[in-house]
Amino acid sequence: ITTLQETLESQVAPKQASLAKLKKEHGSKVIGKVTIDQLIGGARSVKCMLWETSNLDPEEGIRFRGLTIPECQQVLPTYSGKAGDGEPLLESIIWLLLTSEVPTKEQVDTLTAELHKRSSILPAHVVPLLNSLPKDMHPMTQFSIGLNAAQTASVFAKAYGELEYFHFLLRHLKSMCLKFIASNTLRRYLPADGAPKNEYHKYALEDILNVFAILPEIAATIYRNVYFDGVVKKDQSLDYSGNFCRMLGYENPGFDELMRLYLCIHTDHEGGNASAHTTHLVGSTLSDPYLSYAAGLNALAGPLHGLANQEVLKWIQALQTKFAKEGKEVNAETITEFAWETLNAKKVIPGYGHAVLRKTDPRYTCQREFGLKHMPNDELFKIVDTIYQVMPGILTEHGKVANPYPNVDSHSGVLLWHYGFTQYQYYTVLFGLSRAVGGLCQLYWDRALGLPLERPKSHTPEWLENFAKNN
Ligand code: FAM
Fold first, then answer.
1. Which of 74, 203, 215, 281 is deepest in the core (most CB within 10 A)?
2. One MF term in GO for this entry (predicted)?
C-alpha cells in the first residue's frame, strides 16, 4: 500500500514546478478587476487566492478535488468498505483533499489507524484546562482555547524556532572558525538540520495530522463537561467518526452514519469563506497549523458563518413556542408570518442566503435526502421542509437577498436533534471539527508550494474619493 506521506511526497516537486512555470509564463496576465463596490462590500468575487482542495460554483455548489457530493458518495470508501454503501468516511475525504486521489479502503484504514495512534499526542495539560472552564462559556470559545493550548505539541513551531535559534547563534558568532565548529556541533542536535523553506511542509503535515487526531477528544471533552459527567470513552476499533460518536456518548449506528455525512460535507468550501480564509491568512505568517486553525475556529464562531446552525434551531424553537402559545399550528402560513416578523425586525433568516451560492446548497440537499431516508416522519424534519417550500418566495419578495435558497446550516441541526443531540449551542463545534480538514489540507499545500505572506492592499476613504473624482 502507498501511504499518505509517500503519495504526497511524490506530488510536491511536480506541483512546485508547474506553479513556477505558470507564474513564469503567465504571471502578468490579468484575471479580473476590482470595483469600489467590491472593495467596500467584503471583496465578493475578487479573485485573489490560490486554493487547491475544492472549488465552489455559484449554481452547482461545491466540488471536492473535482468531485460533487453525490460523486463522493458514490466513489469514496465507506464504513462497510463498499463505495456507495453508506456515507463516505472522513478519512477518505482527508485523503482526497490532500492528494486529489480517491483512496482504497486499505489506504483509508491505514489513515484511521494512524490518526488513532496520533491521538495520544494531546498534551497532558489540555483536558484539565478544559475541565477548569466555566460551563456557560460558549463551546466554540472552549474549542478554540483547547486547540490553542495543544499548540505546545507543535512540531512545526519547534522546528522553525530551533532553526531560527540556530541561525541567531551563528549570526552572533564573530569568527569564521567558531562559526564552522558551532554549526557542525549544533546541527547534530537539531532535528531540522538547517532545513530550507521548501521542507516546511513536512513539519506542517505532522502537525496537521496531529490536529485531526486530537480534535475529537478536545471536542468531546467540552460536550461531556458542559452537558454531562465529563467522562469521555473511546472505541478505536471504529473509524474516526464512529469513535467520535462514542466519545460524545452516542452508541447508535444511525447516528454514526449521520456524523460521517456531517463531517464530510462541512470540510471545505473553497478558500474565501471566513474560517478557511482565516486559517490560510494566519498560516501565511508561518504561524503553525494549531494556531492557524484556532484562528479559523474563531471566524467560524460568527453567526453569519458557522454559528448559523445553532441560530436555525433557535429560530425554529422561537416559532414553535410562539404558535403553541397562540394555539396555532406550525404550517406554511404561520411560518410565513414568523419569517416576515423576523425580516421586519431587520434580522436575518438563519440558514438562508450565501455569499457565493445562487441555488440550493447541495450540502442542504444531501442532508434532506438523508432525512427522507432515515426520518421522513420526524416533526422537525417536516417543519424544515415546509420552511424550504415557503422561504425562497418570501426572501425573493423581500427583495434584498442575492440568494433566497437554503445553505448547509439550514438542515444540519434537525438531523442531529432526531438522534437526541439537542444541545444546539454545541452544533458549531461539529462544524469546526470538520472544517479543520479543508483548512488544514490546504495549509499543507500552502507550505509545500511555498506561498508567501498574504498582504492585500487597503485604501482610505479619502483615497477612494480622490480616485473616483479623477476617473
Ligand atoms: N435573511 C435576511 N436578510 C438577508 C439574508 C437572510 N438570510 N441573507 C442576506 N440578507 C440581506 C443581507 O443582510 C444584506 O442586507 P443589507 O443590504 O441590509 O446589508 C442583503 O440581504 C444582501 O446580502 P447578500 O448579498 O444576499 O448576502 P451576503 O453575501 O452579504 O451575505 C450571508 C451572505 C450568508 C452572510 C447572508 O446570506 C446571511 O446573513 N445569511 C443568514 C446567516 C447564515 O445562514 N449564514 C450561514 C452561511 C453558511 F453557508 C455558512 O457560512 N456556514
1. 215
2. transferase activity
Q: Label each residue of 397-433 as H, E or C.
A: HHCCCCCCCECCHHHHHHHHHHCCCCCHHHHHHHHHH
In a domain, 365, yes or no: yes
Find the catalytic residue in 305, 361, 411, 418. Answer: 305
Overall number of domains in the chain: 1
| CATH number of the domain encompassing residue 218 | 1.10.580.10
User: Is residue 462 assigned to a domain?
Assistant: no
* Range(s) of the domain holding residue 314: 1-30+49-455
Ligand 1 pocket residue status of 24, Cβ below 6 Å: no
Active site residue 305: yes
| CB-based contact 251:468 (threshold 8 Å) | no
379 domain-assigned = yes
The pLDDT tens digits of the residues spanning 99-138 come to: 999 999 999 999 999 999 999 999 999 999 999 999 999 9
pTM, rounded to two decimals? 0.93
Q: Is residue 44 part of a domain?
A: no
Assess whether the C-beta atom of 350 lies below 6 angstroms from ligand 1: yes
Active site residue 172: no
Residues 235-267: tens digit of each pLDDT: 999 999 999 999 999 999 999 999 999 999 999
> What's at 127, amino acid-wise?
V
How many whole angstroms separate alpha carbon 445 and alpha carbon 273?
A: 18
DSSP 332-381: HHHHHHHHHHHHHTT---TTB--SS--S--HHHHHHHHHHHHH-TT-HHH
Taking only the tens place, the pLDDT of each residue in 159-181 is 887 666 566 666 777 666 666 66
